[in-house]
Design a protein that fits this description.
This protein is mainly α. The chain has ten helices and seven strands. The strands form three sheets. A three-stranded antiparallel β-sheet has the order 3-4-5. Strands 1-2 form a two-stranded parallel ribbon. The two termini are 26 Å apart.
Length: 263
């Protein structure tokens, strides 16, 4: 099906690219930006891909259905999240020979075009408006409150290597396994995911939460290695620091599991 859709986009490009040459300044004089726009328009208006409305404004989600996270879901139902919608754009773009990859923006995923000279960030979840939205890095940094370390660490807002993309997919599997209560399997998925994509801040957060939960089945409550002993260690090491992490102005007392994907 992906091959068929990619061929359909290729055929459409042959017909409509003369439109670009009539007014290239409307596309930053970049034929590749125009082509990305055609791909996005095709997926929304012809295929009917749209964001899962039940999840659009949710503050937290349990992904008990793996189809919410992987390509089979968005291709079968035509509804998805940023995880599988961005992956679909990347899958078709690569079939067309374009330098596109997944990229992370906190817990959000986008399709990123990067040919070594020019980058374009494609918001794959943009549906209902012609299917095409591209924002510069500066906008995404401000809109998503990305701290400088998120970028300097190699975690966010860059084209991921294939190895790291595989880490993302294993992390999504770990998220599903966690949400259905399979903590042992989830921990194994996250451990491999972090080995493949060690600079990911999101994988770090999610894997640590699962590892802490797993320790409950390995240690008695008052043993070294239990969640309480970890809490004691963290307090002994960091309680003297005159700062506490916050989220929306409130102290963070636990891991916040955000939805994977947003409007």
């Amino acid at each position: 099906m992906a091959n068929e859709w990619a061929e359909a986009v290729k055929s459409r490009l042959t017909r409509v690219e003369p439109i670009f040459h009539q007014s290239p300044d409307g596309w930053k004089n970049d034929i590749n930006l125009f082509r990305l726009g055609v791909l996005c328009e095709y997926l929304e208006c012809e295929v009917g891909i749209e964001y899962n409305e039940e999840q659009r404004n949710a503050k937290s989600i349990k992904y008990t259905n793996p189809s919410d996270l992987f390509l089979n879901g968005v291709m079968d139902t035509r509804q998805g999240t940023c995880a599988n919608m961005a992956a679909l754009h990347v899958a078709l773009g690569r079939r067309l020979g374009w330098p596109v990859s997944l990229a992370c923006v906190n817990s959000h995923f986008i399709c990123r075009y990067d040919d070594g000279e020019v980058t374009h960030n494609i918001e794959a979840t943009q549906s209902g408006y012609g299917g095409f939205k591209t924002d510069p890095d500066e906008y995404l940094i401000e809109e998503n409150s990305l701290p400088p370390i998120a970028i300097s660490s190699g975690s966010d807002l860059r084209a991921l290597a294939p190895r790291e993309e595989l880490g993302v997919l294993l992390g999504l599997r770990g998220r599903h396994q966690r949400d259905v209560g399979k903590y042992h399997e989830s921990e194994l998925s996250y451990l491999l995911a972090r080995n493949l994509y060690p600079t990911s801040r999101r994988l770090y957060l999610d894997s640590m939460a699962v590892t802490i939960r797993r320790s409950e089945s390995l240690f008695d409550p008052n043993e070294l290695g239990s969640p309480l002993s970890l809490c004691d260690y963290i307090l002994s090491e960091y309680a003297h620091l005159d700062r506490m992490p916050t989220h929306d102005g409130e102290p963070v007392l636990g891991i916040i599991y955000e939805p994977i994907g947003k409007e």
